[in-house]
Amino acid sequence: MKAKLLIKFLALILVAGALPAMANSIPILLGPLVPVGSCVPTTAWTCAGPSTVVAAVPGLGTITMTGFKPWPSTPGNIGVTLDSNSSSFVPYVGITGGNNQDEIDLQTPEVLQMTFSKAVTVTTLNLNKLFVAGVRGDTNVEIAAVNYLFNGSFLGTSFFFGTQNGMLTVNNPFGSALIDTLQFWAVPTSSATDASNSDFGVSALTVTPVPEPGTLLLLGSGLAAIAARRRRKSS
Fold it and tell me: Which of 223, 220, 201, 203 is CA-nearest to residue 211?
């Protein structure tokens, strides 16, 4: 009897220890992030190329942000910037040293790559300065594209269209895909080929880190122990 109680107690401890490690959603507002390590921010903030921006995210680890121009041959040759000076917009991350200096522009093209230190699923994505035709001189609706990858393998591309106020929130933008890298780029349209007709920034994401294999094994062991005890009891 004591042995059975001990097994049950240990199994519950295993499960209880594993459940907190099962990740919760983490909202990531890019505005408050502060680059560490490879870049010393100059305004709020601008990291001129060549540079790779690393920012710490509590509960996740880090996000590494790299600018490409042209894509994909020259990673890190162009800077990454946070634009927080426009009072009418939420702060957003884009590319500096390119065509429009603070957004992910159409020409060349520019690409902003974000790499997460842990695999995640993305539950929300917030884009900024992505307008419909007729707003701020845009002749066509602006289109943002995001490639999503895991462990170096390309999984797909999602496309997002401009809004009247330039701000867009998308739920489950990549479905349930497990990812560790996002690549943001602007989509050319038939009659708008200059940078100001297709550019945008990234304001925020909500991600859910995927539990480490060891956590899943720990949880599985605890559940298996409980199941084994129940089988013995019923027999």
Answer: 220
Find the distance separating the first CA and the last CA of the chain, reported in whole Å: 15
80 contacts: CB under 8 Å, gap ≥ 6:
39, 47, 51, 53, 65, 66, 67, 93, 94, 95, 96, 112
Q: Is the dihedral of CA 48, 52, 56, 60 positive or negative?
A: positive
Mind giving me the DSSP string for 62-99?
A: EEEEEEESSTTT-EEEEEEEEE---TTS--EEEEESSS
In angstroms, rounded to a whole number, what is the distance separating the alpha carbons of residues 111 and 185?
5
* Tokens matching residue 111: 């690409």
Cα–Cα distance for residue pair 28/96, rounded to 1 Å: 21
Joined together, the tokens standing for residue 34 give 């502060």
CB-based burial label for 42 (10 Å; 0-12, 13-18, 19+)? exposed
CA nearest 91: which of 56, 122, 143, 129?
Answer: 129
* Domain positions in the chain: 1-22+212-235, 25-210
pLDDT at 98: 66
- Whether CATH 2.60.120 fits 25-210: yes
d(CA 202, CA 130): 10
Q: What is the pTM of this model?
A: 0.76
What are the tens digits of pLDDT across the range 71-92?
A: 777 776 777 777 765 555 678 8
